Amino acid sequence: MAESRANRPAGSVELIAVSKTKPVEDIELAIAAGQLKFGENYAQEAVNKATSINSGPVEWHFIGPIQSNKTRQLAEHMHWIHTIDRPKIALRLNEQRPRSMGPLNICIQVNISEEPSKAGLSPEDLSTFLPLFDDLPNLKLRGFMAIPAPSDDPDKQRQPFRALHTLFNTAKLKYPQLDTLSMGMSADLEMAVAEGATMVRVGTDIFGPR
Ligand SMILES: *Cc1c(COP(=O)(O)O)cnc(C)c1O
Predict the structure, then answer these.
(1) What is the pTM of this model?
(2) What are the residue ranges spanned by the domains of the chain?
(3) Distance in Å, CA 109 to ligand 1 centroid
(4) Is the CB of 63 inside a 6 Å radius of any atom of ligand 1?
């Protein structure tokens, strides 16, 4: 629906169902309804769920902050990590990714609203951060992710999404393989889709309040 309102083709935006804090039974119901991509915020919870569900086509996306002592578990159980903003974490994931699983898909988290003390790489640091991935064969850089500061004004809310899309287009000139803009949650997904999101991460609107 958000796709058609934004004049975007049906199926051009992937839905990541954010199941953090929700029980495995809720995820199994969603799988039965055809949803196969899930997002989790807490490493231990993510790994427990990935281990206990572990059915073939289910894809696990890690969207929370990453402590360096959790990278091995994430490298061994996740399909995607959306929240890379430090070289140290990228190096560890590259090192610890089991070769048999193929490269781990990566989005760089960008602090697009430039909020002090918020997670994410500052936009001006992208040009020095991106080349790091040239030498990390077990990571596959896919694109950017952001959680903009919330705004009640829809026009204002669109600005950071537009800014992230511009950074993405610039990065694509040098890294044409980039194909993912992970932006938009329950409250702001319409604006994110209108500004070019390719993945939205939706929790509340699917599983109810937490
Ligand atoms: C919790 C969370 C979401 C989902 O938020 P809702 O408002 O419940 O849709 C999306 N992205 C991240 C990074 C989150 O932590």
Answers:
(1) 0.97
(2) 16-203
(3) 14
(4) yes
204 lines ligand 1 (CB under 6 A): yes
pLDDT above 80: residue 55: no
**Residue nearest to ligand 1 atom 10, measured at CA:** 201
Return the CATH superfamily for domain 16-203. Alanine racemase (3.20.20.10)
- Residue 149: predicted pLDDT: 94
- Is a pLDDT exceeding 80 seen at residue 116? yes
For residues 153 and 168, the answer to whether their CB atoms sit within 8 Å is no
27: Cβ below 6 Å to ligand 1? no
Other CB atoms within a 10 A radius of the CB of residue 190 amount to 18
Report d(CA 54, CA 41) in Å as an integer: 18
CA–CA separation, 79 and 16 (whole Å): 12
Q: How far is the CA of 63 from the centre of ligand 1 (A)?
A: 8
How high is the pLDDT of residue 1? 72
Atom of ligand 1 nearest to the CA of 187: 7
Tell me, in angstroms, the distance from the centre of ligand 1 to residue 61's CA.
Answer: 12
Question: Is it the case that residue 85 has pLDDT exceeding 80?
Answer: yes
End-to-end CA distance of the chain: 24
